[in-house]
Amino acid sequence: MVRDPVCGMEVDPEKTPFKTQVNGRTYYFCSETCLRIFESPERELKSMRKRMSVAITGAVFLAVLRAAAFLVLAAGVTFFTWAPISLLPWLNYGVILFIITTPIQFIGGWTFYKGAVKAIKNRVANMDLLITVGTLTAYIYSSIVIFAPGILPFTPKDVYFDVAAIIIAFVLLGKYLEESIKKRSSATIRKLMDLSPTMARVIRNGEEKTIPASNIQLNELIIVSPGEKIPADGVIVEGSSSIDEKMITGESVPVDKTVGDPVIGATVNLTSFLKIKATKVGAETTLNQIIRMVEEAQASTAPIQRIADKVAARFVPSVILAAVISLLTWTFLLDNYSLGLLSFIAVMIIACPCALGIATPTALIVGVGKGAETGILIRGAEYLEAAQSLTTIVFDKTGTLTKGEPSVTDVIVFNSSEKDILLLATIAEKHSQHPLSKAVHRKASEYFKNIPDPVEFKYIPGAGNMAVYDSKKILSGGRRLLSEFNILISSDVEQALTRLEEQGKTVSIICVDDAVKGLIAFSDELKPYALEAVNQLKQIGLETYILSGDNERTVRYIASKLGVDGYKANIPPWEKANVIKKLQSEGKIVAMVGDGINDAPSLAQANIGIALGSGSDIAKETGGIILVKDDLRDVVKAIKLSRKTMKTIKQNLFWAFIYNVIGIPVAALGLLNPIFAAAVMSFSSLFVVSNSARLKKYRLE
Q1: CA–CA distance, 657 with 119 (Å, rounded to integer)
Q2: Residue pair 285/267 in contact by the 8 Å Cβ criterion
């Protein structure tokens, strides 16, 4: 079974005839109405508006007619004194109501009948069935009273055409307003779809052709001019340009790309002509995978909704039984068929479970969509529900809390200058591919445009590098390198070296002609906002831990700098899951924040796995929540959004239940007019949708 992306109902993909395909992905629907809303929400709303107009116009006319009748009667004359009764003996008040009501009943209420037939075929009782039974009962009974009263076993007194018509008008008005709010609140999928260009230029058989973007083939060459969107994921094979990726990754600064660099579909080529080889097309592109995740999350069912579904499954048959009992009681025990009929209709209408059915899906659609707009992808409703109960956040260190690559943090000199030491160190490291060598080169590029080549270069495994430049022997490495060349470390150098190592930093010692001239310290720096994110998590009452395979000294330093509640070092990836399991055994609800690849076991073990990753890595992530942007503050935003969404769902379910609990007994006792019941039923659905729509304005800070 799959879920209808419009209404959230479960659909059997093998049986439903209603389906459509967009960007290589097939969508299934429970009804033609849902299919039309998905394909063309504006057109379907326009059609609904027409049906609503017919119903509302007729209802207003009925109200005016009834008011006029009472005014005439109040004047002491019969309503038809002025009418040409002798010419139109069949035209009476009931027939006039029949003429006015019939278009409302069968034009305005047509969609309810179609839905009711489908419900009967599928052996379910839905809102359409209840409205159809209630209004048709009033309409058919009133028609019999007017045209064939003799077939009834009692003398009829009243007709209820206006009741049926006004109920349809109220429900259609509420439904129209509800769909209008839904359309504005659940526009995320449509917005994401609109990011992708519809057409693309490709090279086929040596010729440039313009084709629909959905027809791009794997490994096909795509031409993208400045200002155009890239139509598929690929690799640049010709040209260099700046790419605006903020619509996918959230990164506001354009990224420079050249031959061999990957590009993401739907991003914008800003400056130069590019030729790109397509590596992912159709449903496999990054954008379509993001869309799929959002859709699946919006259509998923939270554990709290399963309770509502079970209640609703038993609720509707019980309501129909209550309505029948009410009708029989008033008719045969209390000898008041008219009130019995009104009670029957009122119970059927007030008990429509539409508010109960949409309480969770509407909040999910808005909440998940809100997250997607800010780069927070939530894979399913169960993760939203789990997030509200989190007690502990566990972070991987390298690549999650830190940048994952070393950078120069300190340059300490002895009888030399910082620029000279950086130049000599960079010459010594120029032919090395070690991460520390690259960090030295990045730092030196702040001072020098060109770095000279060494006359001689030698890599000493596990120790460092030796180079000769300008008749000087340069050593760059650790304590072992100095030991290899029998160079002693003076007390002042040792003191500085020890201080840097105690801070969790790796230190490279720079020697010139066997004399220590400087120290260059490296550290895997914290990511921007890491400290702010940890502080925010502590403010909302969560414990924070670090699990890392790095050495004790480095992890301890990072932990103390962030102020987390605890840490464990020297932990390989496969052992992290056991640590999380131990935390869970202590009663903690744990979220693991990692890169989604190396930390896959621990992400899977945690109650919620939160994976950090760029847009191009989305498909590889295994977390329940994925943060597209590399911003740790989004961990806090994801938890706050989850809590807010679940709070909204609980509010919706409470009000959906309470109005039924109060309304059904009142209706069964004959104290609730069916027209008022329709208004209350419509209001309950509007309340649920409007309450969910408020999430759209929730500020994630």
Answers
A1: 22
A2: no
Residue type, 132: T
Tell me the CA distances in angstroms from 386 to 120, 175, 649, one per residue in order.
36, 32, 14
DSSP output for 126-182: -HHHHHHHHHHHHHHHHHHHHH-GGGSSS------HHHHHHHHHHHHHHHHHHHHHH
575 or 623, greater pLDDT: 575
Confidence of residue 618 (pLDDT cuts 50, 70, 90): very low
Which residue has 């929730």 as its token pair? Answer: 698
DSSP helix/strand/coil, 541:
coil
Q: What is the pLDDT of residue 351?
A: 66
Per DSSP, the three-state class of 291 is helix
Helix/strand/coil for 404? coil
pLDDT of residue 190: 59
Helix (H, G, I), strand (E, B) or coil at 607: coil
Radius of gyration of the chain from its Cα atoms, rounded to whole angstroms? 36
Per the CB < 8 A criterion, the answer to whether 643 and 310 are in contact is: no
**Cα dihedral 278/283/288/290 (nearest 10):** -110
| Matching residue, tokens 């209004």 | 135
Query: Model confidence over 47-97: pLDDT tens digits?
Result: 767 766 766 776 666 666 555 554 444 444 444 444 443 444 445 667 877
Residue ranges in 453-502 assigned as alpha helix (H): 479-484, 491-502
Cα(48)–Cα(192) distance, rounded to whole angstroms?
A: 26
Cβ partners under 8 Å of residue 555, min gap 6:
397, 504, 546, 548, 567, 568, 569
Q: Quick check: is 396 catalytic?
A: yes
* Catalytic pick among 396, 524, 550, 634: 396
> Nearest CA to 45 among 194, 177, 193?
177
Q: What single-letter DSSP state applies at residue 107? A: I
Q: Which amino acid is at 358?
A: I
CB 24 within 8 A of CB 218: no
- Distance linking the first and last C-alpha atoms of the chain: 37
> Which of 191, 183, 182 is closest to 287 using CA atoms?
191
Amino acid residing at 431: H
Cα dihedral: 143, 147, 150, 156 (round 10):
50
Extract the tokens encoding 576.
Answer: 């992290």
Structure tokens at 50: 């027409």
DSSP 321-389: HHHHHHHHIIIIIS--HHHHHHHHHHHHHHT-THHHHHHHHHHHHHHHHHHHHTTEEE--HHHHHHHTT
Distance between CA atoms of residues 325 and 131, nearest Å: 18
Number of H helices, E strands in the chain: 23, 26
Extract the tokens encoding 318: 């019980």
Q: What is the DSSP code string of 631-660?
A: -THHHHHHHHHHHHHHHHHHHHHHHHHHHH
CB of 668 closer than 8 Å to CB of 343: yes
